[in-house]
Design a protein that fits this description.
The chain is of the alpha+beta class. Helix content is 30%, strand content 25%. The structure holds zinc ion (ZN).
């Protein structure tokens, strides 16, 4: 009988990097976006919010985007965290398929 080293790869979080940010899958549709230059600068992105548009904890989102979404308006642009996390999510989904 041979005992094999069973290291579970499944538990490891997919990680994605873009534009100086590291994006970590937190759970379900939530991501932690960390500035690689300043690791203290972390934002939570949740794509379950605002009907799939997504919510971010950064100031830009809270002051510029959230008020528009609450009025049912389409914001001009997403914050960089939302954009990068969206791409990370698509990337992870293709990996899981
Ligand atoms: Zn943001």
């Amino acid at each position: 009988m041979k005992s094999e080293d069973t290291k579970t790869e499944k538990g490891s979080e997919p990680e994605y990097q873009e534009n100086g940010m590291g994006i970590n899958w937190f759970e379900a549709k939530r991501f932690l976006v960390t500035s690689l230059r300043n690791p203290m600068n972390v934002h939570m992105v949740d794509f379950d919010e605002y009907g799939g548009y997504g919510e971010c904890s950064c100031e830009y989102f809270q002051f510029m985007i959230a008020p528009k979404l609450k009025q049912g308006k389409q914001p001009f642009k997403k914050c960089r965290h939302l954009r990068s996390a969206k791409r990370a999510m698509q990337n992870i989904q293709t990996l899981l398929d």
